[in-house]
Amino acid sequence: MSREREPRHRTAGSSASVRAPRGVCNGEKRLECPVCEKRFTFRGNLETHLRTHTGEKPFECAVCQKKFIHSGHLRRHLRIHTGEKPFECTVCKQQFTQSGSLRMHLRTHTGEKPFECTICKKSFPRSGDLGEHLRIHTGEKPFECAVCKKSFPRSGDLRRHLLTHTGEKPFECTVCRQKFTQSGSLRMHLRIHTGEKAFECTVCNKKFNQSGSLRAHLRTHTGEKPFECSVCKKKFVQRGHLRRHLLKHSGDTHRE
């Protein structure tokens, strides 16, 4: 089937047609975009580029009707519907729909972190991870809760926060069926069943199933007492000890 001629392109707000000029394709970039003056070697590349100015999206998905500027973008999109994952990791055999996703995944095996923070020099495997990290330095919190207006630096932080409003607890323990709002809380809970104690004191080698328990224990070695009674100024190693102490001032002999 013969290829249809490309349609004429128009710039927004202009009645004049924007057409790719003819040029000699001898390796030089003689074809110039009449809108932004970017230059191209091949006429087809220029014609595709012009769609970024006109907004034309001639390639439509037959399944969901989403439209694309490039035919290649449509091909990649179709894999969402077909489930095709042609790019396979040679290390762990995990498969991906896009070559870019495979490249990023490979960094989990190689340890490569090409994106470095210019402020603290911490490196990241993905540019998106670096972008999120930079908000620590800038203080930017672009993700706002529609319920309480609290803002967060990452979209994932907002999603987890929203569970406090909905009451949803999507993470369920397969042993006792207790549910949690966060996957991390479930992981900590599972250690109760497995007996795993992953956090070890470097002083006495005592082990704990939670990092918070280890931090509290370390104060027995350092002598640190960060929890102070606002009434008598007595200090305590653990917050729970302070709570019990406060009952003496309130006259309540029962635990809260």
Automatic annotation (TrEMBL):
<keyword id="KW-0539">Nucleus</keyword>
<feature type="domain" description="C2H2-type">
    <location>
        <begin position="227"/>
        <end position="254"/>
    </location>
</feature>
<keyword id="KW-0862">Zinc</keyword>
<feature type="domain" description="C2H2-type">
    <location>
        <begin position="171"/>
        <end position="198"/>
    </location>
</feature>
<dbReference type="InterPro" id="IPR036236">
    <property type="entry name" value="Znf_C2H2_sf"/>
</dbReference>
<feature type="domain" description="C2H2-type">
    <location>
        <begin position="115"/>
        <end position="142"/>
    </location>
</feature>
<keyword id="KW-0677">Repeat</keyword>
<protein>
    <submittedName>
        <fullName>Gastrula zinc finger protein XlCGF71.1-like</fullName>
    </submittedName>
</protein>
<feature type="domain" description="C2H2-type">
    <location>
        <begin position="143"/>
        <end position="170"/>
    </location>
</feature>
<feature type="domain" description="C2H2-type">
    <location>
        <begin position="87"/>
        <end position="114"/>
    </location>
</feature>
<dbReference type="GO" id="GO:0000978">
    <property type="term" value="F:RNA polymerase II cis-regulatory region sequence-specific DNA binding"/>
</dbReference>
<feature type="domain" description="C2H2-type">
    <location>
        <begin position="59"/>
        <end position="86"/>
    </location>
</feature>
<dbReference type="InterPro" id="IPR013087">
    <property type="entry name" value="Znf_C2H2_type"/>
</dbReference>
<dbReference type="Pfam" id="PF00096">
    <property type="entry name" value="zf-C2H2"/>
</dbReference>
<keyword id="KW-0863">Zinc-finger</keyword>
<feature type="domain" description="C2H2-type">
    <location>
        <begin position="199"/>
        <end position="226"/>
    </location>
</feature>
<dbReference type="GO" id="GO:0005634">
    <property type="term" value="C:nucleus"/>
</dbReference>
<feature type="region of interest" description="Disordered">
    <location>
        <begin position="1"/>
        <end position="21"/>
    </location>
</feature>
<feature type="domain" description="C2H2-type">
    <location>
        <begin position="31"/>
        <end position="58"/>
    </location>
</feature>
<keyword id="KW-0479">Metal-binding</keyword>
<dbReference type="GO" id="GO:0008270">
    <property type="term" value="F:zinc ion binding"/>
</dbReference>
<comment type="similarity">
    <text>Belongs to the krueppel C2H2-type zinc-finger protein family.</text>
</comment>
<dbReference type="GO" id="GO:0000981">
    <property type="term" value="F:DNA-binding transcription factor activity, RNA polymerase II-specific"/>
</dbReference>
